[in-house]
């Protein structure tokens, strides 16, 4: 395969999006440089140690073998012709967008950007960010977009913990501020992804990402409400879901859980809500879904309290199994589990946790450390609460040795021992 025109690429932000992207890019382009202000990540990469559950140490070794280097210095963008921003876009305390990482990264990069550079934003954000934030920053440096620099937006579609889709096979939505910007990003990603999905503007691409995650946010919240209804009506929601998903048309399968977490699904809808509200547009579905999701950890805690109604709660101990926001990842961002733990402690219960991927969890400024999952550990707790269904866990062992088990994830358990489910 002929090498593309753009050969030297800097990926800024080496987290759950940036590092897997850097690995894929390195397989098709001459040089990939990683930039991250977290010096601990840079150190681990230099030692061929992965800090992501989806990326092996061997993958890091192979990446470095293809010439990849990582640095915390923005000066090295002088060496590249393409910059891809994969930095966080969280919420601030009032639930409005926090674009400080994007703005700070751009301001740090601009003094070293040479003419002809392609700048691609991959971070999830509200419609208008690419044109309203990136373009003015470039213009402050007298860089004309479409002539001196090219700006594009392409939303990431990483699904941590899911190995059923190869990175290159997930269709890649792309957009450019000008037709030439779109052409530049097309050249960049053509060898990397099997299918590109060009759209007419960055605003369309930005909205596409928010639509995808807002749909999931609303539907998962709805299924959580259905789980509450089924429980109150003494109906097994999991049996209902299994029956419903046999319908071959018109039904999409979602599952309930302890609450929605992660960097995207609980955050992206609020970016959309903020943008809509700026124009006095109401977001009734998003608002309702948020209320349901926000209440879910309190609901889980109340279910635990009901299960322990015959026990003095100050004598009760709860073991949380799996605290990441989803199975098979070491990602605690926006996880609902610390809030569940806090509610249980407020009710007087003592709380411990086990997670094979996460060593520490902080609750009210107290740091808890993951404890071993053994028959003895299980037996000494009043109740075991499964909040993340990691594939590596022995659920039959957990069931066999638990005094009481509350499973919020419908784990694969063969035992006939009584189990409380969501």
UniProtKB/TrEMBL annotation:
Superkingdom assignment:
Bacteria
Q: InterPro entries, per this entry?
A: 6-PGluconate_DH-like_C_sf, NAD(P)-bd_dom_sf, UDP-Glc/GDP-Man, UDP-Glc/GDP-Man_DH_C, UDP-Glc/GDP-Man_DH_C_sf, UDP-Glc/GDP-Man_DH_dimer, UDP-Glc/GDP-Man_DH_N, UDP_ManNAc/GlcNAc_DH
* Gene3D superfamilies per the UniProt record, alphabetical: NAD(P)-binding Rossmann-like Domain
> SMART domains, from UniProt?
UDPG_MGDP_dh_C (SM00984)
Question: Biological process (GO) annotations?
Answer: polysaccharide biosynthetic process
Among SUPFAM superfamilies, the record links this protein to: 6-phosphogluconate dehydrogenase C-terminal domain-like, NAD(P)-binding Rossmann-fold domains, UDP-glucose/GDP-mannose dehydrogenase C-terminal domain
Annotated UDP-glucose/GDP-mannose dehydrogenase C-terminal domain residues: 319-414
One GO molecular function term of this record is: NAD binding
What the entry lists under Pfam families is as follows: UDPG_MGDP_dh, UDPG_MGDP_dh_C, UDPG_MGDP_dh_N
What keywords are annotated for this sequence in UniProt?
Answer: NAD, Oxidoreductase
Family per similarity comment: Belongs to the UDP-glucose/GDP-mannose dehydrogenase family.
Protein name, as recorded: UDP-N-acetyl-D-glucosamine dehydrogenase
């Amino acid at each position: 395969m002929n090498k593309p025109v753009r050969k030297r690429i800097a990926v800024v932000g080496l987290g759950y999006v940036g590092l897997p992207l850097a690995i894929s890019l390195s397989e098709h382009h001459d040089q990939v440089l990683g930039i991250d202000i977290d010096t601990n990540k840079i150190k681990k990469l230099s030692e061929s140690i992965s800090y992501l559950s989806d990326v092996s140490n061997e993958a890091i070794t192979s990446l470095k073998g293809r010439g990849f280097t990582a640095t915390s210095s923005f000066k090295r963008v002088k060496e590249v012709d393409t910059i891809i921003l994969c930095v966080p876009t969280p919420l601030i305390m009032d639930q409005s967008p926090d674009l400080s990482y994007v703005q700070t990264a751009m301001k740090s990069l601009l003094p070293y950007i040479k003419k002809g550079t392609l700048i691609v934003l991959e971070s999830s954000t509200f419609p208008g960010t690419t044109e309203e934030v990136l373009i003015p920053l470039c213009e402050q440096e007298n860089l004309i977009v479409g002539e001196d620099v090219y700006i594009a937006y392409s939303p990431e579609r990483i699904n941590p913990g899911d190995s059923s889709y190869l990175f290159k096979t997930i269709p890649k939505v792309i957009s450019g501020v000008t037709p030439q910007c779109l052409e530049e990003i097309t050249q960049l990603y053509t060898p990397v992804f099997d299918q590109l999905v060009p759209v007419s503007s960055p605003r369309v691409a930005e909205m596409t990402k928010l639509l995808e995650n807002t749909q999931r946010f609303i539907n998962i919240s709805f299924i959580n409400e259905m789980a509450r209804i089924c429980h109150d009506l003494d109906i097994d929601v999991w049996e209902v879901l299994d029956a419903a998903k046999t319908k071959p048309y018109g039904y999409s399968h979602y599952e309930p859980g302890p609450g929605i977490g992660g960097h995207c699904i609980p955050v992206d809808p609020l970016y959309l809500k903020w943008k809509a509200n700026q124009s006095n547009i109401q977001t009734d579905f998003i608002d309702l879904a948020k209320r349901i999701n926000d209440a879910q950890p309190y609901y889980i805690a109340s279910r635990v309290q009901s299960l322990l109604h015959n026990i003095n709660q100050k004598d009760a101990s709860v073991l949380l199994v799996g605290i990441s926001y989803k199975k098979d990842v070491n990602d605690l961002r926006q996880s609902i589990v610390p809030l569940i733990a806090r509610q249980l402690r407020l009710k007087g219960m003592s709380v411990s946790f086990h997670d094979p991927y996460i060593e520490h969890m902080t609750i009210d400024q107290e740091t808890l450390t993951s404890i071993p999952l053994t028959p003895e550990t299980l037996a000494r707790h009043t109740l075991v609460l499964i909040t993340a269904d990691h594939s590596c866990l022995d659920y039959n062992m957990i069931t066999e040795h638990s005094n009481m088990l509350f499973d919020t994830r419908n784990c694969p358990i063969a035992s006939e021992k009584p189990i409380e489910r969501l």
